[in-house]
Amino acid sequence: MYLVCDGMGGAAAGEIASSLAVDEMMRLLTDRDTETQLPELIDQAIAAANQAIYSRAQANQKLNGMGTTMVALVVEERHVRLINIGDSRCYRLRAGHLEQISLDHSLVDEQVRLGRMTPAEALRSPLRNVITRALGTQSRVTPDIFDLEAEPGDLFLLCSDGLTRELADAKIESLLGAAVPLGGLCSSLVDAANHAGGGDNITCLLVRAKG
Fold first, then answer.
1. Host domain of residue 57
2. What Rg do the C-alpha atoms of the chain give, in angstroms?
3. How far apart, in whole angstroms, are the C-alpha atoms of residue 81 and residue 145?
4. Which residues are 81's β-sheet partners?
5. CA quadruple 49, 52, 58, 62: dihedral positive or negative?
6. What SS3 string covers 79-131?
7. Which among 84, 116, 163, 184 is most buried, taking Cβ atoms within 10 Å?
8. Distances (CA, A) of 209 to 51, 152, 188, 202
């Protein structure tokens, strides 16, 4: 299992929310009961993570409204389940071509998908930071779940919006095409995003399917 969470909320609330999400997801999905089917376990883990954050926020007024985005891969052999809540993203690089797999749960991206706003307008919109779905902000949350089959050499990128706000997809594709180890690719992505402005937290995680 691989996941990236990007917390939101005042003071340390975002850090608390993202830590709770990681802890609950890892607890329920890495120490799994083999008698329970994976889709059911994923549902249980998401519900547990959401409830842990929501309950903590309800119990402490200073944490009110905290939440976190989440993008995760759960891998079984070649089968990959992608889980997405919020605007952290999953991309797949296959045969040199980069494709965004996840869909952003943000106001402007939903307007673009409905044809009510152009991508250029979305980039300039003062509402571009408005998230329509997050873990922990409501008592229940519905994720997007995508079922994928990995091919040898596929490279999956999980990242926070601090990366994608600074780097266009074409730039990310170019950087991921370099023949360097995954750690070096991650560093080059973060360095490029910082050089482009670095206006937000930048997190990226790379997973390659073996041949």
1. 2-208
2. 17
3. 7
4. 74, 147
5. negative
6. EEEEEEECCCEEEEEECCEEEECCCCCEHHHHHHHCCCCCHHHHHHCCCCCCE
7. 163
8. 33, 5, 20, 24
pLDDT above 80 for 186: yes
Largest CA distance in the chain: 50
Distance between CA 116 and CA 145 in Å, rounded? 25
pTM reported for the whole predicted model: 0.93
Question: Residue 167 carries which side chain, given as an amino acid letter?
Answer: L
CA distances from 145 to 102, 166, 199 (A): 9, 26, 29
Q: In the chain, how many domains are there?
A: 1
Average pLDDT, the chain: 93
Q: What is the pLDDT of residue 163?
A: 96
pLDDT of residue 44: 93
Residue 202 CA to residue 109 CA, distance in Å, equals 20
